[in-house]
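Tip: read the tokens left to right.
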């Protein structure tokens, strides 16, 4: 092709799919019978594009699968940005959950008129991923600031201006450590009261900077903290961000929106998992021409184990209650031994599931054994249940509902609407205002009538802090009206707001303060807000930062749930640490009523390196940590019945087994400890 300029990279041949008229046109091969269910396969291909003056385009490998009951499914298995100048390697991995009557693999993606060139395409059983090794955190100085001259005792030594702004030192900043850092560090000397004043800024990225390359350790989680203040020339709200440039990639260390001239805490965290050649920290964000001040900048490694010790004590305080078992039918003159074993903790810990997952019995076994709540990944979303106007598809949701009901698993309804425009299907976008209002009403009526009493929660209008599709078109009242109508149609379920980056200090659109204001606005318009959803798609979580958000939101007195929790690290031990941070913070906080994971099985997660179970069913280190926590949250006790015929212990709420052994007999009974603060007496007749 191209007068002999395009040659295969390997072997003697390549194939070209030309005269394409649709983006899904390409090259295909039927592979029915050559792939088995529940096995992981890896895909690799050498691809390239040609023609129509297009130099780069997405090329995707897709499976078309037909099941014995004639259900069809498209599964994206790999994709790459292909170019017209060279061959590029495309890689991916997939697993089929259920049995298939037909499987076809095909390559697609570039716009019509562009040829897809394929040199090689290989699909083979995936090699097992070798397990991670635990990172070496020996000799880490936890809590020690890596910033040089943080107290500005030596002028601006160690700091340099990024861009041609001017740095000088002033005094009069807070001498106390910002609260989130204080919670991590404990008792600590006071700050110096000196700050860096940044003037003559002509770009938003200009501010004080410092190189920290040599001071960072891989896989260690660092907390970031400072006080910031804006100069008086500012007119509107200004964003201030502590950023890292890691080999010229921006990494968010935390940000805050400032609207007045007080000092504000900025707090965040980060972690580096690949060896960088250059890392710079810098403070930036306000509009050009606006001066700002920064004081007490700290970056320090976080001692997660110390925090866990505190959280264990806190969890015991708020999640356990004193229980006295009062036995009747016992001969008190003889020796009686009692063994109490908790079989189920009733605190809600759930997971996201997808329709294809439930065709895999290994997935279902793990799910029903370890989770007591469920949420559907996509199958209840409007774009899934009504992809074309009037064509309703509830079959997937019905199948999943049947499974959950069979195993007595409670379900969250996610979601009635999604306020972010990119997640709204095309036919809805094309409606005029009146027709859109009718469609919204129909959606509410269809969904909530069909499933009345079946879902315990609904996320009413997902991510309202990050989008405004319905509000822009239907007016400010529409959001509260969605809540009111949903409540009228199904009064039994709790109606949630649901948003992301609320708990991590990295997004000023969804800070706890903004979320609180948003909820108060809805309540003022009469919306029956029954729950606060914090999604929990979080990176390198730090306990006190998460807890600070929970404290603020907890003041509203509305139950809080983590609704879509996932954490990500290439190292499974660190991923386990991240998960432990989030689960322990949730259990130790009195305002949190439940945790939903956003999946657990490899290849069925929305984020890479976040699974707890490998594709073919092996538990990884993060999964082992999850199960260890579940075990820790079961209470067991044993001892002797006292002379009043009683036995006392302290335990979590849930279901228990008690075994009573005397010289003559052995009796087993089941009892339930309900959630509560006061001591509980349970009568057991033997």
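Filled-in amino acids:
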């Amino acid at each position: 092709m191209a007068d002999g300029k395009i040659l295969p990279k390997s072997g003697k041949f390549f194939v070209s799919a030309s005269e394409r008229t649709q983006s899904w046109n390409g090259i295909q091969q039927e592979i029915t019978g050559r792939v088995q269910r529940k096995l992981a396969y890896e895909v690799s291909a050498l691809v390239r594009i040609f023609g129509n003056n297009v130099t780069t385009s997405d090329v995707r490998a897709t499976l078309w699968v037909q099941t014995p009951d004639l259900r069809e499914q498209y599964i994206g298995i790999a994709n790459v940005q292909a170019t017209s100048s060279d061959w590029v390697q495309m890689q991916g991995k997939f697993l089929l959950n259920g049995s298939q009557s037909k499987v076809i693999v095909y390559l697609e993606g570039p716009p019509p008129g562009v040829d897809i060139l394929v040199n090689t395409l290989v699909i083979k059983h995936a090699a097992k991923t070798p397990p991670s090794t635990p990172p070496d955190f020996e000799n880490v100085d936890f809590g020690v600031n890596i910033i040089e001259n943080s107290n500005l005792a030596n002028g601006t030594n160690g700091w340099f201006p990024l861009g041609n702004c001017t740095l000088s030192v002033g005094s009069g900043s807070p001498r106390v450590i910002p609260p989130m850092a204080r919670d991590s560090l404990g008792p600590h000397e006071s700050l110096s009261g000196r700050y860096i004043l940044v003037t003559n800024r002509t770009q938003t990225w200009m501010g004080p900077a410092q190189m920290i390359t040599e001071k960072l350790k891989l896989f260690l989680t660092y907390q970031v903290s400072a006080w910031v203040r804006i100069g008086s020339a500012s007119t509107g709200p200004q964003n201030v961000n502590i950023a890292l440039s890691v080999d010229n990639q921006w990494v968010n260390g935390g940000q805050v929106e400032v609207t007045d001239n007080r000092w504000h805490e900025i707090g965040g965290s980060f972690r580096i998992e690949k060896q960088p050649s250059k890392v710079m920290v810098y403070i930036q964000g306000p509009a050009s021409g606006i001066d700002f001040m920064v004081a007490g900048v700290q970056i320090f490694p976080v001692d997660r184990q110390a925090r866990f010790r505190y959280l264990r004590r806190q969890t015991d305080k708020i999640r356990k209650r004193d229980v006295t078992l009062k036995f009747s039918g016992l001969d008190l003159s003889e020796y009686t031994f009692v063994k109490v074993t908790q079989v189920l903790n009733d605190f809600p810990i759930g997971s996201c599931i997808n329709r294809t997952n439930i065709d895999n019995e290994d997935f279902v076994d793990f799910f029903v054994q370890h989770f007591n709540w469920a949420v559907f990944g996509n199958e209840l979303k409007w774009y899934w249940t009504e992809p074309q106007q009037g064509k309703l598809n509830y079959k997937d949701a019905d199948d999943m509902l049947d499974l959950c009901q069979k195993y007595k698993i409670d379900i969250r309804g996610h979601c009635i609407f999604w306020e972010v425009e990119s997640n709204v299907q095309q036919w809805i976008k094309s409606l005029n205002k009146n027709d859109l209002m009718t469609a919204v009403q129909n959606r509410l009526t269809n969904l909530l009538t069909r499933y009345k009493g079946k879902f315990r929660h609904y996320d009413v209008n997902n991510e309202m802090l990050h989008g405004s599709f319905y509000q822009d078109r239907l007016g400010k009242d529409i959001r509260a009206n969605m809540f009111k109508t949903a409540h009228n149609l199904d009064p039994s379920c709790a109606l949630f707001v649901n948003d992301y980056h609320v708990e991590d200090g990295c997004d000023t659109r969804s800070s706890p303060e903004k979320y609180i204001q948003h909820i108060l606005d809805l309540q003022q318009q009469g919306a029956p807000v029954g729950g606060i959803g914090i999604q929990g798609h979080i990176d390198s979580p730090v306990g006190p930062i998460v807890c600070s958000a929970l404290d603020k939101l907890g003041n509203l007195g509305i139950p809080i749930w983590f609704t879509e929790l996932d954490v990500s690290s290439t190292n499974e031990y660190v991923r386990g640490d991240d998960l432990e941070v989030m689960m322990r913070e949730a259990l130790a906080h009195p305002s949190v009523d439940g945790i939903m994971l956003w999946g657990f099985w490899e290849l069925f997660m929305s984020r890479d390196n976040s699974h707890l179970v490998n594709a073919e069913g092996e538990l990884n280190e993060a999964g082992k940590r999850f199960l260890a926590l579940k075990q820790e949250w079961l209470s067991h006790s044993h001892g002797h019945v006292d002379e009043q015929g009683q036995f006392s212990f302290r335990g979590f709420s849930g279901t228990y087994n008690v075994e009573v052994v005397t010289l003559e007999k052995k009796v087993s009974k089941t009892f339930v400890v309900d959630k509560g603060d006061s001591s509980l007496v349970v009568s057991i007749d033997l």
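The mean pLDDT is 97. The two ends are 87 Å apart (CA to CA).
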